Amino acid sequence: MPNRIRNLKLEIRRKLTQFFFGICFLFFGISSNAQCAMCRAALESEADTARGEAVNDGIVYLMAIPYILVAVIGFVVYRMFAKKKTNNI
Fold first, then answer.
1. CA 76 – CA 29 distance, rounded (Å)
2. Model's pTM, two decimal places?
């Protein structure tokens, strides 16, 4: 009986992982053009569109880094608690 429960938990975990990866890849290809008002005003006055696109990309990268760090830290904490919980059982 315990093996059956463990296998069921592993199957659920695998399905959830696949679901979250699917959601991440669904939104991966969405292009976003983000600029603050001051950056937009400074770049609209210039005729160089490549610089504007570079600033947009930089803003998106700067926005994504904190989310990635929080996700990694959350995953590490989750793994620590899961390992501690399995050791107590």
1. 27
2. 0.44
